[in-house]
Automatic annotation (TrEMBL):
This is Ferredoxin. The keyword Chloroplast does not apply. One of its GO terms (molecular function) is 2 iron, 2 sulfur cluster binding. The keyword Iron-sulfur applies. It holds the Pfam family Fer2. Keywords: 2Fe-2S, Iron, Iron-sulfur, Metal-binding, Oxidoreductase. InterPro entries: 2Fe-2S-bd, 2Fe-2S-bd_dom_sf, 2Fe-2S_ferredoxin-like_sf, 2Fe-2S_ferredoxin-type, 2Fe2S_fd_BS, Beta-grasp_dom_sf, Diverse_Oxidoreductases. Residues 5-81 form the 2Fe-2S ferredoxin-type domain. It comes from Aquibium oceanicum.
Amino acid sequence: MAKKVPVQFTLNGEERAEFVESGATLLKALRERHGDTSPKGGCHQGTCGACSVMVDGDLVLSCLTLAETCEGRDVSTAAGLSQDGVMHPLQRAFLDGFAAQCGFCTPGMLMAAKALLDENPNPSREDVVEAISGNICRCTGYEPIIQAVLSAARANSHVAA
Ligand code: FES
Ligand code: FES
């Protein structure tokens, strides 16, 4: 039986403490121990991006990240994007721009887009294409997603102006 190790971290701003199996992925811990099913398990081998979350502000693939390495760190997921029932501008733009169909890739896309906009609030189309290049979508053809990210960036710069 796998050894259990204690892991404490913040998840979308809330303190969390849990025993996880040594060697378990962050994806598994989030979904099975913390009830956060927003990161999706697509390929489980680092190629689809559906499991993308942020750890200490960096975009990571939670299927390739060990839960125990998140001790003391700050984990954020798509489930934490909306605040007090108000959608994040990226979520609003995805909804308004029909950028989600089956939605399986959407949480990972949102986190990749958030990581981009945190770093670069005024990205070019090429910046967006590069930022989401690790995320596979089987439904949308990518164009609505690219346009949604650009639209959210424009909306944010309008708010900031
Ligand atoms: S499930 Fe992690 S990259 Fe596909
Ligand atoms: S909306 Fe279905 S995989 Fe992207």
